[in-house]
Specification:
The structure holds two protein chains of two kinds.
Chain A lengths: L1 H14 L6 H11 L1 H23 L31 H36 L1 H15 L3 H20 L1 H15 L3 H15 L2 H8 L4 H9 L4 H24 L11 H8 L8 H28 L7
Chain B lengths: L1 H28 L14 H10 L6 H25 L21 H36 L4 H15 L2 H15 L16 H37 L3 H8 L4 H39 L4 H10 L3 H29 L7
Classes of the chains: A mainly alpha, B mainly alpha.
Chain lengths: 309, 337
């Protein structure tokens, strides 16, 4: 009797250990990745900054005041002003909102298309050939020239339909998303192909589950980790693409200040007012760097081969 | 091997045809009119004549086929005649692919522009290969050393900071403040003597560095992980057990095997760097192919845009093919799929 009563507290001590979910586990791994945490911190600061910033710093980004044109950073205008006297801090904050919104929306589009094409191609052998040929062909398209061409050609007609800002936003987001899903679909297809052979899928099929339900409920949740990593990295590439387009003068118009557009506007006054280009460039670089660090950390945290090492 | 190459070639042809069709259709469906910018005083009949003279009078599939004929038969023939001097057929009346803006043949514009692009792109690629591969190998062999850590951070930065920012920063630092290099690339400069050679060298340093920075970052990471994949393999242990010095183990055995994917990545990266050149050319005002494309797009010069975009697509398909063939030569295992 006494032996039993001694053993019971020990047992309860084991069973009441902190409950950990799969995602809790991932978070524990992620937190140990130093660079990933640095990336997360940078990103959180910048995202919070552009979300809350405009409420605290209530300067109009479009207000033109030639009396204060070309000012270096000072107490009144912490980031300086451009050649029209517009406050650069306010413009960077608004620009950040748009740039990040473009990145996230384009990511959602490319992830939806990418995981749909990838899982269909991986799961249904009949669709594999045609879908992958299609993906290969899309991969062979010259992305940047095509983006430039499409945006230039369809810009005006979309603007008349949706209004100047929404029109160009929709166009840029759609085009970036639709030309960026191919790597994801390949990764997803490869993962689906390997998951499909696992015993639990066989078990699900053998009890008579319909094919598309097996795919959606049993296979797809298991390919989420490569999708999450790809999604993180694709936000960065979408932000870079949007900035490149705006930098070439073919993205957003100048009354919509994205980071890339600010660079484009500032590059002609480069030697005269360098702060106009340094701030947006720094923000783009920091966001992309932060996302890449995070992507690295997520990959390590989600990759089961690297787990428990 | 012959069959492998033939199979790859056969899959490349339908891809190219599909891409050419997509490019043609996108530009054709676009709701813009090449005569839209002309003055309103021009009567509609004249406008219609202008449209016909631009080749817009026929239905789309006829125009597509004509474009294909011009692109794949007429212009290569003209190019051949221009370089060899041999007359082939009725060359004076051959229907040429003309730019709407300059009314000159598209191919002449491209010939005028491509050397500048090739110089900058080629040099930066060579520079990045020379830096990235040794750095990647050393980083892998001395994993977690200070050099590896520095290489990791360098690559992350090189990969994340966009070329349009590094380029502008380089101009601010090295041309505006230090006055080391000119910020604008002068294409008319001819290298005749030592002084002009130095000038040429000075103006090419910044564009090449900016482009190379990005490429080095990618290649360096890839080389590192490829060497790391090879180091724990059995054959390396065997070579070590035979008593070879570590230097030979790495340079002769590990390097050869780990460079297989790197070489294919180098081939695959060439078209991307041409895309990157579009931005670099804009920053340093180099009048290469990328600048030509931007001008053509802004001027709605459809034939020029179609041809340039398609040339970029051909580059991608061609280098994919080359990468596949190189991979097949270097690694016989993948030929049997």
């Amino acid at each position: 009797m006494s032996v039993q009563s001694e053993a019971i507290p020990q047992l309860t001590a084991v069973t009441t250990r902190k409950y950990r979910t799969l995602w809790g586990d991932v978070w524990v791994k992620f937190r140990k990745h130093r660079l990933a945490m640095i990336g997360l911190t940078i990103l959180t600061i910048i995202i919070l900054g552009v979300l809350i910033g405009p409420f605290i710093y209530a300067e109009d980004p479009e207000y033109i005041d030639f009396a204060v044109a070309n000012l270096a950073p000072n107490a009144e205008h912490p980031f300086g002003t451009d050649n029209l006297g517009r406050d650069q801090l306010a413009r960077n904050l608004t620009g950040g909102r748009i740039s990040i919104a473009v990145g996230i929306t384009a990511m959602l589009i490319s992830m939806t298309v990418g995981s749909l094409v990838g899982s269909l191609a991986g799961y249904y052998p009949k669709l594999d050939g045609p879908l992958m040929r299609f993906t290969d062909m899309m991969l062979a398209l010259p992305i940047l020239p095509l983006l430039l061409v499409i945006i230039l050609l369809f810009r005006d007609s979309l603007r008349t339909v949706f209004g100047p800002e929404t029109g160009i936003f929709l166009l840029i987001v759609f085009v970036i998303g639709i030309l960026n899903w191919m790597p994801t679909s390949r990764v997803v297809r490869a993962s689906v192909l390997s998951i499909k052979e696992k015993e639990f899928v066989e078990a699900a099929v053998s009890i008579g589950t319909q094919q598309h339900i097996v795919l959606a409920k049993h296979v797809f949740p298991n390919v989420l980790s490569p999708i999450i990593v790809a999604a993180t990295l694709s936000v960065a590439s979408a932000i870079l693409t949007e900035s490149a387009l705006s930098f070439l003068g073919l993205g957003f118009p100048s009354d919509v200040p994205t980071w890339g557009r600010l660079l484009f506007d500032g590059k002609d006054f480069l030697t005269f007012t360098p702060w106009v280009v340094i701030w947006p460039g720094l923000f783009i670089s920091l966001v992309v760097l932060g996302i890449n660090f995070m992507g690295d950390g997520l990959r390590d945290a989600l990759d089961p081969r690297l787990r428990d090492r | 091997m012959g069959r492998y190459i033939a199979r790859r070639l056969l899959t490349a042809i339908p891809t190219l045809i599909a891409i050419s069709f997509i490019i043609f259709v996108i530009l054709d469906l676009a709701p813009n009119d090449p005569t839209g910018n002309l003055p309103l005083t021009i009567p509609p009949e004249v406008k219609q004549q202008i449209r016909i003279s631009l080749g817009l009078g026929e239905p789309m599939h006829i125009r597509y086929l004509k474009w294909m004929q011009q692109f794949f038969i007429n212009e290569p023939l003209n190019l051949l005649e221009g370089t060899t001097g041999i007359k082939i057929g009725d060359s004076a009346n051959r229907f040429r692919l003309r730019s709407w803006a300059t009314r000159g043949p598209v191919i002449d514009l491209i010939i005028e522009r491509y050397p500048q692009t090739l110089w900058v792109v080629g040099l930066s690629y060579i520079v990045s290969i020379i830096i990235a591969i040794p750095l990647g190998v050393i980083s892998a062999v001395r994993q977690y050393s200070w050099l590896d850590q520095a290489g990791t951070i360098f690559s992350m930065i090189g990969y994340s900071v966009p070329t349009f920012f590094t380029g502008l920063l380089a101009i601010i630092i090295f041309s505006a403040n230090l006055h080391w290099f000119p910020s604008i690339y002068d294409t008319t400069l001819k290298v005749k003597d030592w002084a002009s050679f130095v000038l040429q060298l000075k103006q090419i340093v910044m564009p090449v560095t900016v482009l190379a920075l990005f490429q080095t970052a990618t290649l360096n990471r890839f080389t590192r992980s490829s060497v790391l994949d090879n180091l724990p393999l059995d054959y390396v242990r065997t070579v070590r057990a035979k008593g070879f010095r570590e230097y030979y183990v790495i340079t002769i055995h590990v390097l050869r095997n780990s460079l297989i994917p790197v070489v294919t990545l180098i081939a695959l990266g060439i078209p991307t760097i041409f895309g990157g050149a579009i931005i670099t050319e804009q920053i340093f005002r180099i009048n290469g192919l990328g600048a030509l494309l931007i001008i053509a797009i802004q001027g709605s010069d459809i034939p020029l845009v179609q041809s340039l975009t398609f040339i970029f697509a051909i580059l991608i398909v061609a280098f994919n093919l080359i990468a596949d063939v190189i991979y097949g030569v270097l690694d016989p295992r993948i030929r049997y799929d």
